Amino acid sequence: MDIKTASALRRLRLVSAPEAVSFLLLLVCSILKRTTDFNAVPAMGMIHGVLFLLYVVLWALAWYRAKWTIGRAALYAVLSVLPTGGFFAERMLRREAESEIIAARARQEGVVA
Q: How many C-beta neighbours within 10 Å does residue 36 have?
């Protein structure tokens, strides 16, 4: 994996968890809006919208750089619209990066896997 691909995956991983948190907070704000006089939906909606758009842009960049299959790219796209999907995406991206680091070190040391 080259440095640009690793960077694209890292950026997507770093935005996945905050996007998931903002989605959950937006859901809580929506419930509070309907049950109390508290209305933070416009502010939280804007924050979540920006994070979601950032996720989509970084997802497309990661798809291009990592040359994912359609199925893998679709998986990360679906995870972006599930309330806790960003947490799963972050975990999967971290595992992928860790396995790439292990493979790169093995290649560097001449170990055949």
A: 8
